[in-house]
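Sample 1 of the test manifest.
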Amino acid sequence: SQTIHQWPATLVQPVGSPLSLECTVEGTSNPNLYWYRQAAGRGLQLLFYSIGIDQISSEVPQNLSASRPQDRQFILSSKKLLLSDSGFYLCAWAARNRGQDQPQHFGDGTRLSIL
Amino acid sequence: AQSVAQPEDQVNVAEGNPLTVKCTYSVSGNPYLFWYVQYPNRGLQFLLKYITGDNLVKGSYGFEAEFNKSQTSFHLKKPSALVSDSALYFCAVRESGYSSASKIIFGSGTRLSIRP
């Protein structure tokens, strides 16, 4: 069966420091991958998605970037964190080329606090 | 443009009573609809989806959802609520048009609280 891993689970970083959050998927090939941010336990904001290695689309302009160096690895980065980058970051995957009804499957998230 | 609306921020139900979490949608073309549940400090878990066919869709943990095309609704239901059902629930719709990105648009969430 497929699984998705995110780490770390929690992270406290000072303003201006760099960031690297990692997400890996097991048990599937060539998935679509997504990064979301959830503020205050409410709605999800799609940050980035990827349909293949080195193919990244950004949904909103921001201080963050994403990379996909391997088929099942998705990384969220920042060179200098801002206070506004605090939040709960969720990675998700979905099967590609299996119809339009494929759900997304989520990792357990990283709670990021910026001091 | 596609959208989903969850009109209730919070729903409170007594244990053993039936529950309904409301969702309405707006899409062009055929809707692909989903429900997810989120427990504290966890990711979203997929509950069920509607593609086509029967208007009553059954999913995980005893949940079901009723698709109503004329009312553009996709309400989540359960005949008998459990305290463990207390969580944040999201309705979602697949973005219209063919795209290999398979993006999903989420509602704002409804917090379900089941009292013993």
